[in-house]
């Protein structure tokens, strides 16, 4: 999500991902990177996606089809988001981002990895507030000063689970 140049998605393809969608509100830079790396073109597509737009999310998933050849528990197995939350991001933007993550991984087995660079403690508090509403398991690990990787998994599968708070646990 918010692929920018597409480097995270291209790295996933290089590591063996069967299918990758480089999604961004303005996917031109990702498409340019993909054009410069044509070996990945059969498995990687660039797609417009505005966070919070469920119809666009389904269209993005349809672009790569089912790379595993069977029924899918969710639209995607893995969601990567690298450095997409900034101090200028409103609560609405953070909520739309995390709603898109949740909708992409509505099955119980999907995993989201969110790389976050802390530029403001207020922004971190806003992010944690919205993470808390997701109802999934959330852990984080510091990888550098002010840089965290959040792993979101164990998504709720029933209505009763949907009310469970997501607790940010530092690994």
Can you put this structure into words, describing what you see?
The structure is a single chain. By secondary structure, this protein is α/β, with parallel strands linked by helices. The protein is built from five helices and seven strands. The chain has helices at 7-14, 28-35, 54-64, 91-104, 121-132; strands at 20-24, 44-48, 78-82, 111-117, 137-144, 147-153, 168-170. The strands form two sheets. A five-stranded mixed sheet has the order 3-4-6-5-7. Strands 1-2 form a two-stranded parallel ribbon. The longest helix has 14 residues, at 91-104. It is globular. The two termini are 24 Å apart.
Features:
single chain; 171 residues; alpha/beta; two-stranded parallel ribbon; 5 helices; 31% helix
What is the makeup of the main sheet?
5 strands, mixed
Helix content: 25-40%
**Could you tell me the number of beta strands?**
7
Relative strand content: 15-25%
pLDDT < 50 runs, ≥5 residues: none
Return the structural class: alpha/beta
Assembly form of the protein:
single chain
Task: Give the spatial strand order of the biggest sheet.
Answer: 3-4-6-5-7
The succession of helices and strands, N to C, reads HEHEHEHEHEEE
By DSSP (H or I, 4+ residues per run), the number of helices equals 5
CA radius of gyration: 16 Å
Indicate the mean pLDDT.
86
Ends apart, CA distance between termini: 24 Å
Global shape: globular
């Amino acid at each position: 999500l918010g692929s920018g140049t597409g480097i995270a998605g291209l790295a996933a393809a290089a590591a063996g991902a069967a299918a990758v969608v480089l999604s961004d509100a303005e996917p031109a830079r990702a498409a340019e990177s993909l054009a410069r790396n044509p070996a990945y073109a059969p498995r990687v597509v660039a797609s417009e996606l505005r966070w919070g737009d469920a119809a666009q999310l389904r269209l993005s998933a349809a672009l790569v089809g089912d790379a595993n050849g069977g029924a899918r528990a969710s639209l995607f197995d893995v969601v990567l988001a690298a450095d997409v939350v900034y101090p200028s991001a409103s609560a609405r933007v953070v909520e739309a981002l995390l709603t898109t993550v949740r909708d992409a991984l509505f099955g119980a087995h999907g995993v989201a990895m969110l790389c976050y660079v802390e530029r403001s403690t207020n922004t971190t508090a806003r992010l944690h507030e919205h993470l808390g509403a997701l109802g999934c398991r959330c852990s984080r690990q510091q990888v550098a000063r002010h840089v965290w990787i959040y792993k979101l998994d164990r998504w709720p599968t029933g209505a009763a689970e949907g009310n469970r708070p997501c607790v940010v646990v530092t690994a």
